[in-house]
Fold each of these.
Amino acid sequence: MDGVIHTVEALEAQVGTRPDAVNLKVIDHLDVHAQRWLAASPLAFAGFSDAHQVAATLVGGAPGFASAPEPGQLRVPRAALDDPQHAQAGRGAGLLFLIPGLGETLRINGVVADTSTADILINVQECYAHCAKALLRSDFWRPDPGADPQDAAAFLQACRFMALATADAALHTDLSPKGDPAGSLVQAYGDGIRYADRPGNRRTDSLRNILQRPDAAALLIVPGCTRVAAAQGRAQISADPAQRRAFMVQDKTPKLVTSLAAPVLVLRESAALARSRPWLSPVPPADIDPAEIFAAHVRLNKTRGLGAAISRAMVSIPGLMRKGLQQDYKRNMY
């Protein structure tokens, strides 16, 4: 197939190199900001990986269902997972926590440490706030009243949000959000689906994982609907111009398209979505400021060097981080 990306060098030639600064917002524990986020979150998407497969599931309940018994550990009730069998000790884990009304999300990556009780314990390796572009593009917090597509074709046409789980050879697991208007998020081809890679946090984790290990799992969401579509398959990244043009939005053509070979697209009810009721009252807590969290995590990051010192000094300027986020969302949505 023309345009298939096989190497990191080819990937970076298409999308640019990964800036060192993107890792400065990553910390290795759940600080007070992350714990406050967990206390307000009723819904998460989770990916788990072992040497044989990558799987994705939804996790949900009342706000605060997940917690931090200590800064280096995340606790999630087994009963909160739609598919608790995916959480096994030793597996890589990547979770994306949402707060109703907020575009930004909290990402927590690590390793499942213990599943011997009613709770799943995950040792935290990475914690960081993620930009709002995926949820803004999908208009995630504006549900479609009465939406309940009953077949795969209708669901693909109506879906606006996707959670994509990938992992590398060392089981570092990533759960990446994707969002677009209905009809622009995914397209069917043969026995699989395709989606575009839009501007995001520039870490390119899922793309790099796919180059190492093409296994991927996706969860597709129609905001307002408690039904979810799940797909697992082999992923392939392409810069093919025709594939990219098919995903043009607002006269912007994506730089990459990923194909996921998924012979079976499974539609089912999600108990986690039903429990969490994320669209019931999408008003975020007044005491959670994503710009403040971004800045706090940059200050907590342990990276040394001149560039890191300059970044910490810049985020200490009142309002600078917030203004930067607003400009990025305005100028680089597609």
Amino acid sequence: MIALDSSVLIDVLTNDPVHGDASAAKLEGAMERDDIVVCDVVLAEVAARVHPVDDLMDSLADMGVNFSPVSEQAAIRAGIMQRRFRERGGKRGDRVIADFLVGAHALLHCNALITRDNGFFREYFKGLKIIKPEA
């Protein structure tokens, strides 16, 4: 499975003029190789940004994107990584727990993460393969 970050999914669903084409191309390429999933955190972030939200799950199903919830193990890993972030000097407003939950879910349950935010995930989730759309 390949996890999909909210930024890329929002690019695709909103036809973002800057990143939409690159994100859609990267998503389509990944779908040819593996199953694509979003976790509950990504689903919530997308629902907060995409209108109308009523047919969001139908849109994801039509795209071939499945749902994979964050596990207890991933939630604990996310908390540990956020604590490490703060111990390294990261401030509370710099990164929210959602970012850590997405990374931990991808690391523990998927083969890779499609995201535009590759620096953060590479730093805090060593070993997680990052797939970055190029705009």
Amino acid sequence: MAKAKPPYRIEWRPKAREDLAAIVRYIGKDNPTRARNFVQELHEKTLPLEQYPELGRNGRPGLPDDVREIVAHRHYIVFYRVLDEVSTVEILRVKHAAQQTP
């Protein structure tokens, strides 16, 4: 039986954290509880990347070749890259689908 590959570590980069803070502020204007829960949901949507870092699709045209994306919510896209040499998934940005890509 094949040995299971150790999970990747998920690292949220500063810009992605800033994006999350902006989302919390925006949603929190109307519903602070929903804002906190929503951020938790976005974090949870990235957890499968620990075991399946290639889960998302290749990023959009104009982005670096190593950037991938997953739809974390019908309105939010998480952009990330996989660093195989250090078993890390770097979350780069979280953008509303209507926003320009990073």
Amino acid sequence: MKRKSPRGATTSELIHSAHVAGNADVFPEILDLHVPEASTVADVTFGKGVFWRNVAEGKYNLLATDIQGGIDCRDLPYEDGTIDCVVLDPPYMEGLYRRDSSNMAGANSYSAFRSHYSDGLARNEGPKYHAAVLDMYFTAGREAKRVLKPKGTLIVKCQDEVSANTQHLTHVEIINEYANIGFYAKDLFVVVRPNKPAMSRVIRQVHARKNHSYFLVFVKTKKTNQLGRDFSRAISSINRNGYDR
């Protein structure tokens, strides 16, 4: 019996996982691949709307909210299981969670950075430093799961960071914790910035400077991951107590 040929055509016109580009260039491709047109998409950290600059108006039912408009991504005004897709891009630098506003990232000539990525307010309670970044992602992730429909999509923007001279692979920490709460990591996109990042007051470089970030794509499931749970506990212990290095 003659074997049937698989359907489809050979092409190199594909959506790739790594891009030297801006967020506004990559985000529409993620939507095209993972979010059907006319879906209800809640961008819960909308900010200046940078992600949506190259998305045709009306292609999705966009619900745009942000902390500066009074809606916290950790406490959304949507009913359980009503949203097709949630987009989450909270501040991912521990410098935007400090308790002294004069010492926060994005001061002086970089104030526009702070206005794009946070509410500009110091944090007077809760976890500190990198643990505060993870707490934001983890709490917002649980809230996203609540409002998402079964098999709904969660798109998360994040970046790894060095905090207190310790390397933190934030995207790995998020993936493991989200597996713990019931998300499947379906896809990952790497975004490399076209220009060179700089640092002030450098004496000796000991870690590679981060010039890339991630879009993580998750799907809501009913399953949890014991390995992810154990990993998350270990990371939490390190954040609380530190480790010998």
